[in-house]
Amino acid sequence: MTRAFVALGSNLDDPPAQLRRALAALDRLPETRCTAHSRYWRTPPWGIQAQPPFLNAVASLETALDPHALLDGLLAIETAQGRVRGEQRWGPRTLDLDLLHMEGVRLADDRLVLPHPRIAERAFVLLPLAELAPGLVLPGQGTVADLLATVDRTGCEPV
Question: Which is an annotated GO molecular function term of this record (predicted)?
């Protein structure tokens, strides 16, 4: 089993319910269990500003799935919850699941980069991730706590 971290976000169609359903769905993935999740964080939109605030969280998983199989599972959960990909980048969405990190895995291909290359830029990821694993070292980026100390947290608040 490998420890993995997944970011969750929603700003449409009852975001708290979207995140609850997504956490339950993560725990139902084959050979995977959700071992913990952060509290929810209300955060300002990223990219396109003219949209509702997001609700974000991070889940910690134990999984026997390889990175691409886990990614496929995340995409299937998004689709089941009404996410339509190919719409406006950084626009509003029912659910966004991002595979952030899998322990012992470094990967860069046309489908997936691990660890996620933009973790260090995003308070909406680092705040909930720091609740679960502040000392986690993200290869090539630093510890979660150190990265969190450098990002703008304006408008981010726990729910």
Answer: 2-amino-4-hydroxy-6-hydroxymethyldihydropteridine diphosphokinase activity
Residue 98 designated active-site: yes
The reply to whether 66 belongs to the active site is no
Catalytic entry in 72, 98, 146, 153: 98
* 93 in active site: yes
pLDDT at 140: 86
Q: Which residues does residue 138 pair with via DSSP β-bridges, in sequence order?
A: 142
pLDDT at 123: 97
> Is 110 one of the annotated active-site residues of the chain?
no
Superfamily of domain 2-158: 7,8-Dihydro-6-hydroxymethylpterin-pyrophosphokinase HPPK (3.30.70.560)
Distances (CA, A) of 35 to 96, 115, 129, 149: 20, 20, 13, 26
